[in-house]
Amino acid sequence: MYKIFFLAIALVSGIFANAQSAAATATFKVDGVCEMCKDRIENAAYIKGVKKASWDKETKMLTVFYNPKKVTLQKIEESIAKAGHDTENVKATAEAYAKIHGCCKYREDDTH
Q1: Residue 22 confidence (pLDDT)
Q2: Could you give the CA distance from residue 16 to residue 67 in angstroms, rounded to a whole number?
Q3: Partner of 52 for a Cys bridge, out of 21, 35, 65, 77, CB 3.0 to 4.6 A?
Q4: What tens digit of pLDDT does each residue of 20-67 get?
Q5: Is the Cβ–Cβ distance between 29 and 88 less than 8 Å?
Q6: In what order do the strands lie in the sheet with 61-66?
Q7: How far apart are CA 10 and CA 90, in angstroms?
Q8: Residue 96 buriedness (CB in 10 A; 0-12 / 13-18 / 19+)
Q9: What separation in angstroms does the CA of 30 have from each of 95, 105, 106?
Q10: pTM of whole model > 0.85?
């Protein structure tokens, strides 16, 4: 009976270790100015393979917890740029940027 119990614990521990090793964390700059930006950035970052996304308005830094076997940082940044926000490596198109709310404009020629 104890052998089965310990075997089950070992199996569960192995599965948990494999799940943990698949996770990665990255932090990078994303331009934005307000809470509406925060919601838009985090929602855009939350694509398949991303477990959590958190953007800090003060530092302009986004932290993502993701599975690199399912998604790349490039794809995450492209998704954010499509939502109208520039990242360190991908700039939003003029069309995507034009769609964000007026209070969310962060480019120097558009700031208040």
Answers
A1: 82
A2: 14
A3: 65
A4: 558 999 999 999 999 999 999 999 999 999 999 999 999 999 999 999
A5: yes
A6: 24-29, 61-66, 50-56
A7: 44
A8: middle
A9: 18, 13, 10
A10: no
